[in-house]
Amino acid sequence: MCSLCFIVDRTNSFQLAFITTGCEDGTVRLTRYTSGVDNRSASKLLGEHVGGSTVRSLCSVKKVHTFTVYMTSKAGAIIKHGTDLDDQKDHFLLISVGAKRVITAWKHKTTSTTKSEMLF
User: Fold this and answer.
1) pLDDT in tens, 63-73
2) Whose CA is closest to 92, among 118, 120, 119, 61?
3) Model pTM greater than 0.70?
4) Predicted pLDDT at 115
5) What are phi and psi for residue 51, nearest 5 degrees?
6) Domain ranges across the chain
7) Dihedral sign for Cα atoms in the order 32, 108, 110, 8
8) Name one GO cellular component term (predicted).
């Protein structure tokens, strides 16, 4: 393991936390931890860097903002550029930086389920 990042989500009625790890083989793994739940080893392989480059750093971005630009074409049509995220408050980005100038980002959506139904 080369890099570690803690992510805490306090938006739900119970505290939800993730531990993100990055390894030498380029894999990034997300492990869920919830206080009061016996199974704290629910883990998910998010993916790996292109070419398997070593993960050097991880960070999470909780507040995701989007913007939309409206432009007018030569023909007078209005063109919309941008993306729409539904429920922006439930998203966070995980950004990993690796060797060989590799940057990868994952968008993760947290769910508001009960403790017994919790999944990734």
Assistant:
1) 766 667 777 87
2) 61
3) no
4) 44
5) 75, 10
6) 3-117
7) positive
8) cytoplasm
Residue 83, phi-psi category: left (phi > 0), alpha (psi -120 to 50), beta (remainder): beta
- Can you say whether the dihedral through the CA atoms of 4, 61, 56, 83 is positive or negative? positive
Q: Both tokens of residue 33?
A: 């931890």
Q: Which of 24, 16, 44 lies closest to 96, judged by CA?
A: 24
CA–CA dist 68, 114 (Å, integer): 34
Structure tokens at 55: 């993960």
Q: Within the chain, where are the H helices?
A: none
Residue with tokens 């508001």: 112
Tokens of 24: 């030498």
- Residue for token pair 């429920």: 87
